[in-house]
Amino acid sequence: MNPRPRTPDLAGQSVAVIGAGKSGVAAARLLDALGAKVALVDHKPETEWAMEISDVRTVRPFGGERFAQGLEAVDLVVVSPGVSPALAAFDAVRGQGVPIIGEVELASRFLSVPVIGVTGTNGKSTVVSLLGTLLRECGATPFVGGNLGTPLTEAALVMQQRASVGPEEPAPFREIVAELSSFQLETIDRFHPHVAVLLNITPDHLDRHPTFAAYAGAKANIFRNQTAGDFAVLNADESLVRSVRDSLRGRLVEFSVFKAVPNGVWVAGDTIMTRWNGRQDELMPVCEIPLPGIHNVSNVLAALAVGLIRGCSPEGMRRAVHSFRGLPHVCEVVRERGGVIFINDSKGTNVDATLKAIGSLRQPFVIILGGQEKGKGEFGRLQAALKRDAKHCIVLGESAETIARAIDGVGAISRVSSLAEGVALAADLAVPGDAVLFSPACASFDMFRDYRDRGQQFRDLVNALSD
After folding, report:
1. pLDDT for residue 306
2. Which domains are assigned to the chain?
3. Predicted confidence (pLDDT) at residue 6 exceeds the cutoff of 90
Protein backbone atom coordinates (compact mmCIF):
# COMPACT_ATOMS: atom_id res chain seq x y z
CA MET A 1 0.00 0.00 0.00
CA ASN A 2 1.13 3.54 -0.59
CA PRO A 3 1.85 5.59 2.52
CA ARG A 4 -0.63 8.36 3.16
CA PRO A 5 0.75 11.41 1.35
CA ARG A 6 1.75 14.52 3.19
CA THR A 7 -1.16 16.88 2.63
CA PRO A 8 -0.15 20.53 2.63
CA ASP A 9 -2.37 23.06 4.33
CA LEU A 10 -3.60 25.22 1.47
CA ALA A 11 -6.19 27.12 3.47
CA GLY A 12 -5.75 30.83 2.79
CA GLN A 13 -3.09 30.25 0.14
CA SER A 14 -3.42 32.06 -3.20
CA VAL A 15 -3.35 29.53 -6.03
CA ALA A 16 -3.57 30.16 -9.76
CA VAL A 17 -4.96 27.27 -11.84
CA ILE A 18 -3.95 27.63 -15.49
CA GLY A 19 -6.34 26.22 -18.07
CA ALA A 20 -10.12 26.24 -17.75
CA GLY A 21 -10.78 22.84 -19.32
CA LYS A 22 -11.99 19.77 -17.48
CA SER A 23 -8.76 19.26 -15.49
CA GLY A 24 -8.42 22.93 -14.55
CA VAL A 25 -12.01 23.22 -13.37
CA ALA A 26 -11.64 20.04 -11.29
CA ALA A 27 -8.42 21.36 -9.73
CA ALA A 28 -10.09 24.69 -8.93
CA ARG A 29 -12.97 22.89 -7.20
CA LEU A 30 -10.57 20.81 -5.09
CA LEU A 31 -8.53 23.84 -4.08
CA ASP A 32 -11.66 25.78 -3.19
CA ALA A 33 -12.82 22.92 -0.97
CA LEU A 34 -9.42 23.03 0.76
CA GLY A 35 -9.91 26.71 1.59
CA ALA A 36 -7.47 28.17 -0.94
CA LYS A 37 -8.04 31.48 -2.68
CA VAL A 38 -8.31 30.32 -6.28
CA ALA A 39 -7.84 32.16 -9.56
CA LEU A 40 -8.81 30.19 -12.68
CA VAL A 41 -6.78 31.56 -15.58
CA ASP A 42 -7.07 30.96 -19.31
CA HIS A 43 -6.03 32.74 -22.50
CA LYS A 44 -9.55 32.32 -23.85
CA PRO A 45 -12.11 35.02 -22.98
CA GLU A 46 -14.05 34.39 -19.79
CA THR A 47 -17.31 34.35 -21.72
CA GLU A 48 -16.25 31.00 -23.23
CA TRP A 49 -15.68 29.14 -19.96
CA ALA A 50 -16.58 31.07 -16.78
CA MET A 51 -19.97 29.34 -16.62
CA GLU A 52 -18.15 26.09 -15.77
CA ILE A 53 -17.35 27.48 -12.32
CA SER A 54 -20.35 29.78 -11.89
CA ASP A 55 -21.59 27.64 -8.98
CA VAL A 56 -18.28 28.16 -7.10
CA ARG A 57 -18.54 31.83 -6.37
CA THR A 58 -15.22 32.02 -4.52
CA VAL A 59 -13.18 30.98 -7.61
CA ARG A 60 -12.19 34.11 -9.54
CA PRO A 61 -11.96 33.88 -13.34
CA PHE A 62 -9.17 35.62 -15.28
CA GLY A 63 -9.48 35.23 -19.03
CA GLY A 64 -8.10 36.77 -22.19
CA GLU A 65 -6.28 40.04 -21.54
CA ARG A 66 -6.50 39.47 -17.77
CA PHE A 67 -4.33 36.30 -17.96
CA ALA A 68 -1.25 37.97 -16.41
CA GLN A 69 -3.35 39.54 -13.67
CA GLY A 70 -4.40 36.07 -12.51
CA LEU A 71 -0.76 35.22 -11.82
CA GLU A 72 -0.12 38.15 -9.51
CA ALA A 73 0.79 37.52 -5.85
CA VAL A 74 0.27 33.75 -5.89
CA ASP A 75 1.75 31.09 -3.61
CA LEU A 76 1.28 28.18 -6.02
CA VAL A 77 0.59 27.64 -9.72
CA VAL A 78 -1.23 24.51 -10.94
CA VAL A 79 -1.04 23.90 -14.69
CA SER A 80 -3.50 21.79 -16.67
CA PRO A 81 -2.00 19.08 -18.91
CA GLY A 82 -2.61 21.12 -22.05
CA VAL A 83 -0.54 24.02 -20.73
CA SER A 84 3.23 23.91 -21.05
CA PRO A 85 5.05 24.78 -17.80
CA ALA A 86 7.75 26.36 -19.98
CA LEU A 87 5.51 29.25 -21.06
CA ALA A 88 7.22 32.64 -20.86
CA ALA A 89 4.17 33.85 -18.91
CA PHE A 90 5.45 31.85 -15.92
CA ASP A 91 8.92 33.39 -15.87
CA ALA A 92 8.01 36.02 -13.30
CA VAL A 93 6.43 33.64 -10.77
CA ARG A 94 9.17 31.10 -11.29
CA GLY A 95 11.72 33.82 -10.60
CA GLN A 96 9.93 34.51 -7.31
CA GLY A 97 10.32 30.87 -6.28
CA VAL A 98 6.64 30.04 -6.69
CA PRO A 99 6.17 26.27 -7.24
CA ILE A 100 4.59 25.21 -10.54
CA ILE A 101 2.98 21.77 -10.42
CA GLY A 102 0.47 19.84 -12.50
CA GLU A 103 -3.08 18.78 -11.76
CA VAL A 104 -2.00 15.15 -11.17
CA GLU A 105 0.67 16.22 -8.69
CA LEU A 106 -1.91 18.31 -6.81
CA ALA A 107 -4.36 15.41 -6.67
CA SER A 108 -1.72 12.95 -5.49
CA ARG A 109 -1.17 14.92 -2.29
CA PHE A 110 -4.75 14.19 -1.22
CA LEU A 111 -5.06 10.53 -2.20
CA SER A 112 -4.63 7.83 0.45
CA VAL A 113 -5.36 4.71 -1.62
CA PRO A 114 -2.96 2.85 -3.92
CA VAL A 115 -2.49 4.38 -7.37
CA ILE A 116 -1.97 2.28 -10.49
CA GLY A 117 -0.47 4.61 -13.10
CA VAL A 118 -0.32 3.68 -16.79
CA THR A 119 1.64 5.57 -19.42
CA GLY A 120 3.04 5.01 -22.91
CA THR A 121 2.62 6.51 -26.34
CA ASN A 122 -0.21 4.21 -27.39
CA GLY A 123 -2.58 1.79 -25.67
CA LYS A 124 -2.96 3.73 -22.39
CA SER A 125 -6.72 4.17 -22.63
CA THR A 126 -7.30 0.56 -23.61
CA VAL A 127 -5.17 -0.79 -20.76
CA VAL A 128 -6.70 1.55 -18.17
CA SER A 129 -10.25 0.71 -19.23
CA LEU A 130 -9.51 -3.02 -19.26
CA LEU A 131 -7.93 -2.71 -15.81
CA GLY A 132 -11.11 -1.11 -14.51
CA THR A 133 -13.11 -4.06 -15.86
CA LEU A 134 -10.58 -6.58 -14.54
CA LEU A 135 -10.47 -5.15 -11.01
CA ARG A 136 -14.25 -4.96 -10.79
CA GLU A 137 -14.51 -8.59 -11.94
CA CYS A 138 -12.21 -9.46 -9.05
CA GLY A 139 -14.34 -7.65 -6.49
CA ALA A 140 -12.46 -4.35 -6.26
CA THR A 141 -13.95 -0.85 -6.45
CA PRO A 142 -11.49 1.23 -8.49
CA PHE A 143 -11.64 4.84 -9.58
CA VAL A 144 -10.71 4.92 -13.28
CA GLY A 145 -9.64 8.21 -14.83
CA GLY A 146 -6.74 10.60 -15.23
CA ASN A 147 -5.95 11.54 -18.81
CA LEU A 148 -8.82 9.21 -19.70
CA GLY A 149 -12.12 10.79 -18.68
CA THR A 150 -12.36 11.99 -15.08
CA PRO A 151 -9.49 14.11 -13.70
CA LEU A 152 -7.64 12.80 -10.65
CA THR A 153 -8.49 15.95 -8.73
CA GLU A 154 -12.13 14.82 -8.80
CA ALA A 155 -11.09 11.63 -6.99
CA ALA A 156 -9.07 13.70 -4.53
CA LEU A 157 -12.09 15.94 -3.88
CA VAL A 158 -14.29 12.91 -3.16
CA MET A 159 -11.70 11.57 -0.71
CA GLN A 160 -11.34 14.96 0.92
CA GLN A 161 -15.09 15.22 1.38
CA ARG A 162 -15.21 11.71 2.84
CA ALA A 163 -12.40 12.52 5.27
CA SER A 164 -14.31 15.58 6.48
CA VAL A 165 -17.31 13.38 7.37
CA GLY A 166 -15.21 11.04 9.49
CA PRO A 167 -13.04 7.92 9.31
CA GLU A 168 -16.07 5.66 9.69
CA GLU A 169 -17.41 6.81 6.29
CA PRO A 170 -16.62 4.01 3.78
CA ALA A 171 -14.27 4.90 0.95
CA PRO A 172 -15.99 5.15 -2.44
CA PHE A 173 -13.03 3.39 -4.05
CA ARG A 174 -10.11 1.37 -2.75
CA GLU A 175 -7.62 2.03 -5.52
CA ILE A 176 -7.09 4.40 -8.43
CA VAL A 177 -6.30 3.43 -12.01
CA ALA A 178 -4.94 6.47 -13.84
CA GLU A 179 -3.99 7.07 -17.44
CA LEU A 180 -1.01 9.44 -17.41
CA SER A 181 0.23 11.49 -20.34
CA SER A 182 3.70 12.94 -20.81
CA PHE A 183 2.19 16.37 -20.14
CA GLN A 184 0.97 15.21 -16.73
CA LEU A 185 4.19 13.42 -15.83
CA GLU A 186 6.49 16.32 -16.72
CA THR A 187 5.03 18.35 -13.82
CA ILE A 188 5.17 15.80 -11.00
CA ASP A 189 7.17 16.23 -7.81
CA ARG A 190 6.05 13.72 -5.17
CA PHE A 191 3.48 11.74 -7.20
CA HIS A 192 3.94 8.11 -6.14
CA PRO A 193 2.14 5.28 -7.94
CA HIS A 194 2.21 1.95 -6.12
CA VAL A 195 2.10 0.25 -9.54
CA ALA A 196 3.62 2.07 -12.53
CA VAL A 197 3.16 0.69 -16.06
CA LEU A 198 5.16 1.75 -19.13
CA LEU A 199 3.71 0.33 -22.35
CA ASN A 200 5.83 1.81 -25.15
CA ILE A 201 7.65 4.97 -26.24
CA THR A 202 7.53 6.16 -29.84
CA PRO A 203 7.74 9.71 -31.24
CA ASP A 204 4.74 11.85 -30.29
CA HIS A 205 3.94 15.35 -29.05
CA LEU A 206 7.15 16.73 -30.51
CA ASP A 207 5.27 19.97 -31.11
CA ARG A 208 5.29 20.34 -27.30
CA HIS A 209 8.41 18.54 -26.06
CA PRO A 210 11.70 20.04 -27.33
CA THR A 211 13.23 16.63 -28.17
CA PHE A 212 12.25 12.98 -28.32
CA ALA A 213 14.60 12.40 -25.36
CA ALA A 214 12.65 14.96 -23.33
CA TYR A 215 9.40 13.21 -24.24
CA ALA A 216 10.81 9.81 -23.26
CA GLY A 217 12.15 11.29 -20.03
CA ALA A 218 8.72 12.61 -19.12
CA LYS A 219 7.27 9.12 -19.59
CA ALA A 220 9.99 7.59 -17.38
CA ASN A 221 9.07 10.05 -14.61
CA ILE A 222 6.29 7.64 -13.66
CA PHE A 223 8.94 5.59 -11.77
CA ARG A 224 10.72 8.54 -10.16
CA ASN A 225 9.26 8.31 -6.64
CA GLN A 226 8.76 4.57 -6.37
CA THR A 227 10.36 2.59 -3.54
CA ALA A 228 11.24 -1.07 -2.97
CA GLY A 229 7.66 -1.76 -1.88
CA ASP A 230 6.24 -0.70 -5.26
CA PHE A 231 5.95 -2.41 -8.65
CA ALA A 232 7.29 -1.33 -12.05
CA VAL A 233 5.58 -3.04 -15.01
CA LEU A 234 7.54 -2.93 -18.28
CA ASN A 235 6.97 -4.08 -21.85
CA ALA A 236 9.89 -6.43 -22.42
CA ASP A 237 9.39 -6.21 -26.19
CA GLU A 238 10.24 -2.50 -26.39
CA SER A 239 13.93 -1.54 -26.28
CA LEU A 240 13.32 2.01 -25.05
CA VAL A 241 11.10 0.70 -22.27
CA ARG A 242 13.70 -1.89 -21.25
CA SER A 243 16.33 0.86 -21.04
CA VAL A 244 14.82 2.19 -17.79
CA ARG A 245 15.38 -1.09 -15.91
CA ASP A 246 18.63 -0.02 -14.25
CA SER A 247 17.03 3.05 -12.70
CA LEU A 248 14.06 1.26 -11.13
CA ARG A 249 13.61 1.00 -7.38
CA GLY A 250 10.32 -0.91 -7.45
CA ARG A 251 9.96 -4.65 -8.06
CA LEU A 252 10.21 -5.44 -11.79
CA VAL A 253 7.26 -7.17 -13.47
CA GLU A 254 7.31 -7.67 -17.26
CA PHE A 255 5.03 -8.68 -20.09
CA SER A 256 5.94 -9.91 -23.56
CA VAL A 257 4.24 -11.17 -26.70
CA PHE A 258 7.44 -12.85 -27.93
CA LYS A 259 9.41 -14.34 -25.05
CA ALA A 260 9.16 -15.72 -21.53
CA VAL A 261 9.82 -13.29 -18.67
CA PRO A 262 11.20 -14.05 -15.18
CA ASN A 263 8.22 -12.48 -13.42
CA GLY A 264 5.00 -11.50 -15.17
CA VAL A 265 2.96 -12.49 -18.24
CA TRP A 266 3.91 -13.67 -21.72
CA VAL A 267 2.74 -15.61 -24.78
CA ALA A 268 4.05 -19.12 -25.37
CA GLY A 269 2.74 -20.49 -28.66
CA ASP A 270 -1.02 -20.02 -28.49
CA THR A 271 -1.25 -19.62 -24.71
CA ILE A 272 -0.91 -16.76 -22.24
CA MET A 273 1.40 -17.80 -19.40
CA THR A 274 1.98 -16.26 -15.98
CA ARG A 275 4.86 -16.56 -13.55
CA TRP A 276 4.30 -15.07 -10.12
CA ASN A 277 6.14 -15.71 -6.86
CA GLY A 278 7.92 -18.65 -8.43
CA ARG A 279 4.78 -20.36 -9.76
CA GLN A 280 4.17 -20.77 -13.48
CA ASP A 281 0.64 -21.28 -14.87
CA GLU A 282 -1.32 -21.30 -18.12
CA LEU A 283 -3.94 -18.56 -17.99
CA MET A 284 -5.91 -18.59 -21.26
CA PRO A 285 -5.61 -19.10 -25.03
CA VAL A 286 -4.55 -16.02 -27.01
CA CYS A 287 -7.43 -16.63 -29.44
CA GLU A 288 -9.91 -15.73 -26.69
CA ILE A 289 -8.82 -12.08 -26.75
CA PRO A 290 -11.68 -10.31 -28.58
CA LEU A 291 -9.63 -7.28 -29.68
CA PRO A 292 -7.82 -7.42 -33.05
CA GLY A 293 -4.10 -6.95 -33.59
CA ILE A 294 -0.89 -8.00 -31.85
CA HIS A 295 -0.75 -4.59 -30.15
CA ASN A 296 -3.95 -5.47 -28.33
CA VAL A 297 -2.45 -8.78 -27.21
CA SER A 298 0.31 -6.67 -25.64
CA ASN A 299 -2.26 -4.37 -24.04
CA VAL A 300 -4.08 -7.34 -22.51
CA LEU A 301 -0.80 -8.75 -21.16
CA ALA A 302 -0.06 -5.42 -19.46
CA ALA A 303 -3.44 -5.43 -17.71
CA LEU A 304 -3.00 -9.07 -16.68
CA ALA A 305 0.41 -8.24 -15.17
CA VAL A 306 -1.25 -5.64 -12.96
CA GLY A 307 -3.95 -8.17 -12.13
CA LEU A 308 -1.26 -10.53 -10.81
CA ILE A 309 0.15 -7.78 -8.61
CA ARG A 310 -3.28 -6.91 -7.22
CA GLY A 311 -4.08 -10.54 -6.42
CA CYS A 312 -6.85 -11.02 -8.99
CA SER A 313 -8.06 -14.57 -9.54
CA PRO A 314 -7.37 -16.31 -12.87
CA GLU A 315 -11.12 -16.76 -13.35
CA GLY A 316 -11.80 -13.06 -12.80
CA MET A 317 -9.04 -12.03 -15.20
CA ARG A 318 -10.34 -14.37 -17.88
CA ARG A 319 -13.89 -13.03 -17.48
CA ALA A 320 -12.63 -9.47 -17.80
CA VAL A 321 -10.70 -10.17 -21.00
CA HIS A 322 -13.61 -12.08 -22.55
CA SER A 323 -16.09 -9.28 -21.83
CA PHE A 324 -13.94 -6.32 -22.92
CA ARG A 325 -14.83 -4.97 -26.34
CA GLY A 326 -12.45 -2.04 -26.61
CA LEU A 327 -13.00 1.71 -26.61
CA PRO A 328 -14.93 4.11 -28.80
CA HIS A 329 -12.80 5.59 -31.61
CA VAL A 330 -10.12 2.87 -31.29
CA CYS A 331 -10.31 0.51 -34.31
CA GLU A 332 -14.07 0.60 -33.81
CA VAL A 333 -16.18 -1.09 -36.48
CA VAL A 334 -18.89 1.44 -37.31
CA ARG A 335 -20.74 -0.41 -40.03
CA GLU A 336 -20.58 -2.98 -42.78
CA ARG A 337 -22.03 -1.62 -46.01
CA GLY A 338 -22.14 -3.62 -49.21
CA GLY A 339 -19.39 -5.93 -48.01
CA VAL A 340 -17.14 -3.02 -46.94
CA ILE A 341 -16.23 -2.56 -43.26
CA PHE A 342 -15.87 1.05 -42.04
CA ILE A 343 -13.45 1.41 -39.10
CA ASN A 344 -13.22 4.46 -36.84
CA ASP A 345 -9.73 4.89 -35.36
CA SER A 346 -9.96 8.62 -34.65
CA LYS A 347 -7.87 8.10 -31.51
CA GLY A 348 -4.99 7.22 -33.84
CA THR A 349 -3.37 10.61 -33.31
CA ASN A 350 0.20 9.62 -34.14
CA VAL A 351 2.00 7.53 -36.74
CA ASP A 352 2.67 4.59 -34.42
CA ALA A 353 -1.05 4.27 -33.58
CA THR A 354 -1.96 4.29 -37.26
CA LEU A 355 0.66 1.63 -38.01
CA LYS A 356 -0.91 -0.56 -35.32
CA ALA A 357 -4.37 -0.02 -36.82
CA ILE A 358 -3.08 -0.96 -40.28
CA GLY A 359 -1.38 -4.01 -38.81
CA SER A 360 -4.66 -5.24 -37.36
CA LEU A 361 -6.31 -5.45 -40.80
CA ARG A 362 -6.47 -8.65 -42.79
CA GLN A 363 -7.96 -7.24 -45.99
CA PRO A 364 -7.20 -4.55 -48.59
CA PHE A 365 -8.18 -1.08 -47.42
CA VAL A 366 -8.78 2.55 -48.29
CA ILE A 367 -7.34 4.84 -45.65
CA ILE A 368 -8.22 8.41 -44.62
CA LEU A 369 -5.29 10.30 -43.07
CA GLY A 370 -4.58 13.83 -41.93
CA GLY A 371 -5.11 16.56 -39.38
CA GLN A 372 -2.77 18.65 -37.27
CA GLU A 373 0.83 17.43 -37.33
CA LYS A 374 2.38 16.68 -33.90
CA GLY A 375 6.01 16.15 -34.90
CA LYS A 376 8.18 16.60 -37.96
CA GLY A 377 9.37 13.87 -40.28
CA GLU A 378 7.28 10.97 -38.99
CA PHE A 379 4.82 10.36 -41.84
CA GLY A 380 7.40 8.57 -43.99
CA ARG A 381 7.19 5.64 -41.54
CA LEU A 382 3.76 4.88 -43.00
CA GLN A 383 5.07 4.22 -46.48
CA ALA A 384 6.04 0.55 -46.22
CA ALA A 385 2.79 -0.46 -44.50
CA LEU A 386 0.68 1.43 -47.03
CA LYS A 387 2.51 -0.08 -50.00
CA ARG A 388 1.51 -3.58 -48.95
CA ASP A 389 -2.29 -3.43 -48.79
CA ALA A 390 -3.56 0.15 -49.18
CA LYS A 391 -5.60 0.50 -52.37
CA HIS A 392 -6.01 4.26 -52.04
CA CYS A 393 -4.88 6.97 -49.61
CA ILE A 394 -7.08 9.98 -48.89
CA VAL A 395 -5.49 12.96 -47.12
CA LEU A 396 -7.08 16.00 -45.53
CA GLY A 397 -6.45 18.77 -43.02
CA GLU A 398 -3.42 20.95 -42.29
CA SER A 399 -1.00 18.09 -42.90
CA ALA A 400 -2.50 16.81 -46.17
CA GLU A 401 0.34 17.97 -48.43
CA THR A 402 3.02 16.93 -45.94
CA ILE A 403 1.58 13.42 -45.75
CA ALA A 404 1.15 13.19 -49.53
CA ARG A 405 4.83 14.07 -50.05
CA ALA A 406 5.99 11.67 -47.33
CA ILE A 407 4.09 8.67 -48.74
CA ASP A 408 4.64 9.45 -52.41
CA GLY A 409 4.97 6.21 -54.35
CA VAL A 410 2.52 4.11 -52.32
CA GLY A 411 -0.11 4.29 -55.08
CA ALA A 412 -3.12 6.49 -55.60
CA ILE A 413 -3.40 9.52 -53.30
CA SER A 414 -6.36 11.90 -53.25
CA ARG A 415 -6.66 15.22 -51.45
CA VAL A 416 -10.02 16.28 -50.00
CA SER A 417 -11.15 19.43 -48.23
CA SER A 418 -13.42 17.85 -45.59
CA LEU A 419 -14.09 14.61 -43.77
CA ALA A 420 -17.47 14.37 -45.50
CA GLU A 421 -15.75 14.48 -48.88
CA GLY A 422 -13.23 11.89 -47.71
CA VAL A 423 -15.90 9.45 -46.50
CA ALA A 424 -17.89 9.80 -49.71
CA LEU A 425 -14.78 9.18 -51.84
CA ALA A 426 -13.72 6.17 -49.73
CA ALA A 427 -17.19 4.67 -50.05
CA ASP A 428 -17.00 5.01 -53.84
CA LEU A 429 -13.51 3.49 -54.05
CA ALA A 430 -13.95 0.48 -51.75
CA VAL A 431 -15.36 -2.79 -53.09
CA PRO A 432 -16.77 -5.82 -51.26
CA GLY A 433 -14.08 -7.40 -49.12
CA ASP A 434 -12.29 -4.09 -48.47
CA ALA A 435 -12.11 -1.97 -45.33
CA VAL A 436 -12.26 1.81 -45.04
CA LEU A 437 -9.90 2.82 -42.22
CA PHE A 438 -10.09 6.29 -40.68
CA SER A 439 -6.85 6.54 -38.71
CA PRO A 440 -5.55 10.11 -39.09
CA ALA A 441 -2.02 9.78 -37.57
CA CYS A 442 -2.55 13.40 -36.49
CA ALA A 443 -4.16 15.53 -33.83
CA SER A 444 -7.69 16.74 -34.53
CA PHE A 445 -7.55 20.40 -33.56
CA ASP A 446 -7.26 21.84 -37.06
CA MET A 447 -10.82 20.85 -37.97
CA PHE A 448 -12.48 19.36 -34.87
CA ARG A 449 -12.96 19.96 -31.16
CA ASP A 450 -11.04 16.80 -30.23
CA TYR A 451 -10.58 13.21 -31.41
CA ARG A 452 -13.99 12.26 -29.97
CA ASP A 453 -15.74 14.95 -32.01
CA ARG A 454 -13.78 13.83 -35.08
CA GLY A 455 -14.68 10.19 -34.52
CA GLN A 456 -18.35 10.95 -33.94
CA GLN A 457 -18.50 12.95 -37.16
CA PHE A 458 -16.95 10.00 -39.00
CA ARG A 459 -19.56 7.68 -37.48
CA ASP A 460 -22.39 10.01 -38.47
CA LEU A 461 -21.12 10.34 -42.04
CA VAL A 462 -20.70 6.58 -42.43
CA ASN A 463 -24.12 5.81 -40.98
CA ALA A 464 -25.67 8.39 -43.31
CA LEU A 465 -24.38 6.56 -46.41
CA SER A 466 -27.19 4.95 -48.39
CA ASP A 467 -27.47 1.16 -48.22
Report:
1. 98
2. 14-98 (3.40.50.720), 106-323 (3.40.1190.10), 332-463 (3.90.190.20)
3. no
